[in-house]
């Protein structure tokens, strides 16, 4: 726990010269206030942004613990934002400085875009001269100026456009993608019914991130972004693309346009221009939908709540560790790690992107956006614009799902099949998991298909798995789609079927295998590798893609489907909290899935503002339960008369959900009532989130590229013989990158009894959960975020896909 040496006070403001809002800011506000109070600092709200800082008075108010309750699920910002021309002038900044000095505030946390953060940097740079002038004019005393001799600045980026260089994701972007995809999915159904073409315009005047990720997530036919304008003959290419899609049986076309889309000559490309082109040349029934400011509102996603909370905590740590020589920094996200970057370096690189676009250096603009943007753009171009070659590779790749369904599997399968066809491979679908692979009847080839042709190909928006639960069910609620209902519900492991599986691989001449699934996929793949010594046919490259709501597969920080499940839990908790707030003095105990893995319970606890989250990895005793009950009893004396407790389904064999419910009910008699909810399998269903669609798409594409390379590496005289450790790998996200790790190495990192990785990154977030719930806890700073530099940092793209 880092305690401030001089008990400093700091302010928290949402400020923006251009008045742009996004959801998720309230999570950051809440975290800064509560962690600031936890460390012993005074925290002040600055209402109405820089205008409130200039005007002072009641616009600057001390924050309390209770005032930030029930904020997590609210969009926008509860402390307000406003355009401020006054702060652009030195006279305005003098007034702002005086208001801070009079209150003894020496630390400023700013949440906003590059305009807000640039203003904060200017404020810090002028601070000393502002104090001198204030003392000279009598605005403050010499003693007051001495006590406020320096100003520390930390910024957090809030922008739905994700246009700030130096961070993988800005606060508000994921929530905006949720709003967009809800509308795109709704439009897709009507477009299919009427055989229409829809042109959807999303925000992004200078950045095409929203448009690009939307196109990846929905399988759009075309996307226009300002960083990479289309070729001069784009009209012909677009029309040809739409005709090809319809020719393969699709009943609709989806075109995504960023509001700042331009030609290579810098002329705007509007949604109406595209509509008129399609109607005039093709005669298709075409509609335009401009999403507008709906993208800025709504309930924040679980990702944005956790991101805002983590950034808020890191911002407080940065402020309290600051010295007079510390430059203004911005807290950002790199992979799953919080990092601190020099504020003006980030601002400068962000401006460099605009400069590159203005100078028609579009390749440089894409590179300056960063590695993540570059990779997303490369994947989209492959999936949407590269056609399968006329000459085939002669290789056969099989795709299969193993274990329980997870939303987002469709995206991985779709990407794998499409990239495989682009490489010239024959793609085979394996029904019914390892059982289907053993018996062979459940394997069938896949023809080239359209992304919207639901009976033939998985759509990224379809729930659960394309390798689904029933061969007879139909429609989104049933889980049959792409591969005619390939079953993923079969949890059979391959060990007792190795001979039959070897015969099937030989019979279908399978050269590589992609296995998408959870812990069963991992353990089953290990069994296949173990069988190589006895069955030569098993010596083919194998790639495992983790897909499970439990997020318990070793070798990856995230699994496909976990984000969708997390949002489902968070949404349910929001509704339960509303019920508790309405009835008062009520505590809800919620049981989540995850097996022995407490990822869902912990992260849902952070996202929903839970008072406690019981998990297997963090053992607890009856004394801990007693402390929690006493804590809730004290809470009922405040204005926040409700409680939320999450319990992982296998956190303790004795302290069951019923036991905890009965304990809380008995010990809370006369103080609060208790209720319990077991969420069950609703956590495995639902439409996949944008994160899971995008993550699955990139994983599927990268797996095929890796398999193709391995097949060529191990090919000798027309035969494949891959028996080295690195020929059977799991593709996972590690910190900042997608990496392939040999299954044999991951075996040593696995607790097979409890189906868990031995090391899990998210456990370091549990102290934050406890602190935000007002428990005393040690904040683990062993992986303290250090100031990094980005101006000259290389941005190499990942291996070619």
TrEMBL record:
Phosphofructokinase domain ranges (all copies): 22-318, 397-707
A Pfam family: PFK
Positions contributing to Mg(2+) binding: 114
Gene3D superfamilies per UniProt: 3.40.50.450, Phosphofructokinase domain (3.40.50.460)
Molecular function in Gene Ontology: 6-phosphofructokinase activity; AMP binding; ATP binding; fructose-6-phosphate binding; identical protein binding; metal ion binding; monosaccharide binding
Region (C-terminal regulatory PFK domain 2): 396-801
Binding site residues for substrate: 159-161, 196, 203-205, 259, 287, 293-296
Entry-linked InterPro entries: 6-Pfructokinase_euk, ATP_PFK, PFK_vert-type, Phosphofructokinase_CS, Phosphofructokinase_dom, PKF_sf
Chain positions recorded as ATP binding sites: 83-84, 113-116
Annotated transmembrane regions: none
Pathway involvement of the protein, from the record: Carbohydrate degradation; glycolysis; D-glyceraldehyde 3-phosphate and glycerone phosphate from D-glucose: step 3/4
Subcellular location: Cytoplasm
UniProt family annotation: Belongs to the phosphofructokinase type A (PFKA) family. ATP-dependent PFK group I subfamily. Eukaryotic two domain clade 'E' sub-subfamily. Belongs to the phosphofructokinase type A (PFKA) family. ATP-dependent PFK group I subfamily. Eukaryotic two domain clade "E" sub-subfamily.
Protein's UniProt name: ATP-dependent 6-phosphofructokinase
